C-alpha cells in the first residue's frame, strides 16, 4: 500500500515538475486527478480485500466519500490556488456602460493602445478566464465589452 502512495505522490510531483498543472485547463486537471484518485482507491481496496481487511475497506470508502464530493468542485479550487482569489461576482445591477478608460484598465493596457494590442490582450485574458475553462461569465463579458468598445 505504501508503494502505491509513493507512486501516486511521485506522479503528482512529476506533473508539477513538468509544469503540466500550470498550463492545463482546470477541467482537464480535474479529470486527471479524479482518475488518479479512483485508481489509488481501487488499488487500496483490492489490497484490503486480498488481505481480508473488509472493515478497513468500508472505513476507507466512508472516509473518502466527503473528499470525493469536494473533488467534483475542483475547478473552483484550482482557480483559487492558481489565481489567489475567487472569480469575481457581478456587481449588483448587472452590466453597466463602460468608459474607454475602464476598458483600457480591464484589458491592462495603456490609453492609446493599437487595435493589435487590444486584440492580443483580449485573447490572452479570455484564454485564462473563459467560462468553458472554469472562468467567470461576468469577467468574460467584461473582457468582451472592453474589446468591443476599444475596437469601435
% residues in beta strands: under 5%
Largest sheet: none
Q: How many individual domains?
A: 2
Radius of gyration: 22 Å
| Topology pattern, helix = H, strand = E | HHHHHHHH
Low-confidence segments: none
Oligomer: single chain
Proportion of helical residues: over 70%
Overall pLDDT confidence: 77
Could you say which overall geometry the principal axes of the C-alpha atoms support?
elongated
Distance separating the two termini: 62 Å
Q: How would you describe this structure to a colleague?
A:
- Residues 102-152 form the J domain.
- Belongs to the TIM14 family.
- InterPro entries: DnaJ_domain (IPR001623), J_dom_sf (IPR036869).
- The chain crosses the membrane at residues 37-64.
- It is a single chain.
- This protein has 152 residues and is an all-alpha fold.
- It has 2 domains: 2-83, no CATH class; 100-150, DnaJ domain (Helix Hairpins, Orthogonal Bundle).
- α3 crosses α5.
- The longest helix has 25 residues, at 26-50.
- It is 72% helix and 0% strand.
- The radius of gyration is 22 Å and the shape is elongated.
- It has 8 helices and no strands.
- The chain has helices at residues 2-17, 20-23, 26-50, 54-71, 74-83, 100-107, 115-129, 137-150.
- The model has no long low-confidence stretch (mean pLDDT 77).
